[in-house]
Every structure is written in structure tokens, then in C-alpha cells.
């Protein structure tokens, strides 16, 4: 069973590497290529609103050809986001825009997928190329490390794997603090603790 899981993971890594290579090679005219990465707890509505605002800004681009391709890419991203009711558990990666093929023709491309591991990056860029730096995080080692963090207020147990952190358990305590005052203050401190 574990061997099958390892094989699936290796296939996912191979697919991501191939995708990164293809995306890095793609070039476009003007700033008509949108790179959009949403972390797991992000909101689709926030990104849709932001794309709507960018649509308004892009309407002011002077070059007609560039304006149309940017507006087309934004519309394409908005349409693709409508297919999702919420951000998937591992986040969402979306690349869309008009690329120039090797024979000089323009071609519309839209790629969206949920990564095989949680992605903690957040990215929204319009450029003449796709930005894939954040995808390289997915290819990093996925060794898991455990942490116990303690201070005067409580304790936290968590894990760290690559760039993804997860809090397993957290609890707070209300300990009396050190003080430099002597004398008859014990009753007052007990009363203060009860008031909290």
C-alpha cells in the first residue's frame, strides 16, 4: 500500500516538473499572462473581486491589442474560478493567458489544478511570462519535523513539512508571574487570579 502511495507521489512530482518546464518556456506579448496561486484557506470571492478590480484597471491600457489580451486573460481566470465553490484543501494554482507558439501564432492557455501537497504561497501577477517559483516548493523534501513550543502563556504541538505547518494541539495556562514585591501580597494575587 505504501509503495503505491510512493509511486503516485513520484508521478505527481514528475507531472509538476514537466508542467513547470512548459510554463517557464511559454512567453506572451505584453502583460497578458496571469499567474494565480491561492493557499488553502483563501477565499474564491476575494480573488474574484480582485480580478474584477484589475479588469477595471486593464480597461485603461492604451495599446488595443495588449488591452484585449489582458482583458481576455482576466475574463478567462474569472470563468475558471466560477467552477470552484471554495479553495481546495491543498490550495489552487491557475495559469491563464495568451502565449506565442514557436511558429509565431497566438494561443490561449488555461491551466488550473490542486497541488498534491498544501501550497503556502499566495501569488497574483500579470506579466509576459508565467511565474512558477512557488511551484518549486512542492518539489522540496517533505520530511516531517515535530515541534513543541512553550512559554509563560501555554504550549503548542505542531509539525513542519517543507513550507507547510500544522498545529496539532494548543493550550494556554494562566500561571502567576514572578514579582519583586514582598509582604502581604499573596491574598491580593490570589484575588486577581480569581477575577480573571
Please, could you describe this protein's structure?
The chain is an alpha+beta fold. The protein has 4 helices and 7 strands. The longest helix has 24 residues. It comes from Gossypium darwinii (Darwin's cotton). Belongs to the eukaryotic release factor 1 family.
What topology emerges from the helices and strands here?
Blueprint: H1 2-25, E1 33-38, H2 44-58, H3 64-81, E2 92-100, E3 106-113, E4 123-127, E5 144-151, E6 154-161, E7 164-172, H4 186-195
Share of helix, binned: 25-40%
The CATH superfamily of the largest domain is known as eRF1 domain 1
- Structural class by secondary-structure content: alpha+beta
CATH architecture of the largest domain: 2-Layer Sandwich
**CATH topology of the largest domain, which one?**
Translation, Eukaryotic Peptide Chain Release Factor Subunit 1, Chain A
Low-confidence stretches: none
Number of helices: 4
Terminal CA distance reads 52 Å
What fraction strand? 25-35%
- What's the total count of β strands? 7
Main sheet strand line-up: 3-2-1-4
How would a crystallographer describe the biggest sheet? Answer: 4 strands, antiparallel
Name the shape in a single word. Answer: elongated
Rg over CA atoms: 25 Å
* SSE string: HEHHEEEEEEH
Amino acid at each position: 500500500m505504501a509503495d503505491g502511495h510512493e509511486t503516485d507521489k513520484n508521478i505527481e512530482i514528475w507531472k509538476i516538473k514537466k508542467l513547470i518546464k512548459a510554463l517557464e518556456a511559454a512567453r506572451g506579448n505584453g502583460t497578458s499572462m496571469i499567474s494565480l496561486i491561492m493557499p488553502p484557506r483563501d477565499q474564491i470571492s476575494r480573488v474574484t473581486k480582485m480580478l474584477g478590480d484589475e479588469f477595471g484597471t486593464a480597461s485603461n491600457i492604451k495599446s488595443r491589442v495588449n488591452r484585449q489580451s489582458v482583458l481576455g486573460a482576466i475574463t478567462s481566470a474569472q470563468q475558471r474560478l466560477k467552477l470552484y465553490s471554495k479553495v481546495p484543501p491543498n490550495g489552487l494554482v491557475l495559469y491563464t493567458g495568451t502565449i506565442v507558439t514557436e511558429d509565431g501564432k497566438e494561443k490561449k492557455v488555461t491551466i488550473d489544478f490542486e497541488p498534491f501537497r498544501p501550497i503556502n504561497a499566495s501569488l497574483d501577477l500579470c506579466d509576459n511570462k508565467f511565474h512558477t517559483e512557488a511551484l518549486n516548493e512542492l518539489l522540496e523534501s517533505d520530511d516531517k519535523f515535530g515541534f513543541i513550543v512553550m512559554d509563560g502563556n501555554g504550549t503548542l504541538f505542531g509539525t513542519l513539512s517543507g513550507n507547510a505547518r500544522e498545529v496539532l494541539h494548543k493550550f494556554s495556562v494562566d500561571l502567576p508571574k514572578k514579582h519583586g514585591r514582598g509582604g502581604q501580597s499573596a491574598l491580593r494575587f490570589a484575588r486577581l487570579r480569581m477575577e480573571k
